[in-house]
Amino acid sequence: MTLLHPSTAGAEWARWGGDPTSLATLAVVLAGYATGVRAAWRHAGRGSVIGVAETRWFAFGVLALAVALCSPIDALSDELFVAHMTQHLLLATVAPPFLVLGAPVLALVWALPPHRRRQLARATRRPFVLRRAWWFVTRPAVAALVHAAAVWLWHAPRAYDWALRSRPAHLAEHLSFVGTACLMWYAILRGHAPARARCAAGILVLFATMLHTGALGALMTVSSRPWYPRQGTGAAAWGLTALEDQQLAGLVMWVVGGLLDVVAMSVLFLHGLSLVGRRARVVVRAAAVAGTALIAGCRPATPSAIAGGDAERGRVSVAGMGCGSCHTIAGVRTAHGLVGPPLTGVASRSLLAGRLPNTPDNMLRWIVDPPAVDSATAMPNLHLDDQTARDIVAYLYTLK
Known about the structure:
By secondary structure, the protein is mostly helical. The chain has helices spanning 20-44, 52-70, 72-76, 81-101, 104-110, 114-125, 128-137, 140-154, 157-165, 167-190, 195-222, 232-237, 242-296, 311-320, 360-368, 370-373, 386-396, and strands at residues 351-352, 356-357. It has a two-stranded antiparallel sheet.
C-alpha cells in the first residue's frame, strides 16, 4: 500500500472506485446473491424462499461494504489512521448484521445448478464431524471469541504494519473482519438456540465485544506514543502528528463503535421483548381454549390431516432422518438447515414446491418422491415407506 505525499492532502476526497480486487469481490458476491434469489423465486414464487425484506437487508449490507471499500474513505485510509479505523468499523460493525439478515448462504446455494444443489444437500447430511464443528463455532460465545481474536490480531502494530505494506495482507485483514463478524451475527440471528435465547446471548456477546473493542480504543487514545508510525507522513499532510491521528482513531473505535453496539443491543432487547409478548399471548389463548374445553366437556382429539398418519411419529421421523440439515423446522430442536426453505408455517401455504396445490395428497406425493414432481429440485428421494411418509405429512400439517 503506497502512502501519499503531503502535497496530495485533500485530493483523496474526490477519489472513488477503491481497490480493483475489492470491487471484483463485491461484484461477484452481489451477482451470486442476485442469481440465487432469482432462481429461488422462479422455482417457488416471489418471496417464498428468500423474503423481499431479506433482499433489502442484504442490499444495506452491501451498501455499507461499498462505502467502506469504494468511497474516498478507502483512499483516505492510506493517509489517516482515523479514516482506516472508520473503514474497519463499517466492515466489522455496520455491514455484517445486514448481510446475515439477507440470508446470503441460502441465496448462494440457490445460485448453484440444480444437480450441484442436490450434491450439496447430500454432502451436508453425511459428514457428522463437520456438522458438529459448525454447531460449535456458531455458538455465540465461540463466534464472539473468534471475532475478538481477529480484531486484536490485526490491530497489533506488526500485523497492522504488514497490512499497510502488503495488498494481500490488507485484503485478508478486511475479509477476516467481515467474515468473523458475520459468523458472530449468524450465531445471534440464525443460530441453533430458540429466538429468545439468541437475543439474550446476543446482548451478552455484544456487550463483551463493546468492552474489549472499547478497551483497545481507549489504549490507543491514552497512549503516550504512536503505535503505527508508518502513517505519520499521511497524518502530517493533514496537520496531525502520528499520535494525534492514533488518538482520533482510538476515539472512533471506543466511542462510535460502542454507540453502534449499544444500538444493536437495544434492537435485540426490543425484539426479545416482542417475542416474550407473543409467547404471553399464546399462553393466554391456550388458557382460554382449555377453559372453554372444560366448560363444554371433553372433545375428541384433532384428527390427522391424512388417513393413517400420526403427527408425533412424524416429528420423530423428521428429527431422526436429519431433515434439519437442510430445513428449519419448528418443533425439531436441531433443525436449523439453510439449504432448503424453512418448513415453519408450511401447512398454511397455498402451494407446494411452487407448483402443487397444498393438499395432504399432494404433500404425500412430494414427500414420497420429490424429483418425480419437480426434476430440478435439490430434495432427493429418501425412499420412505408409506406409513412413515403419512406420519411426516401429518406432522407437517401441524405447522401452521
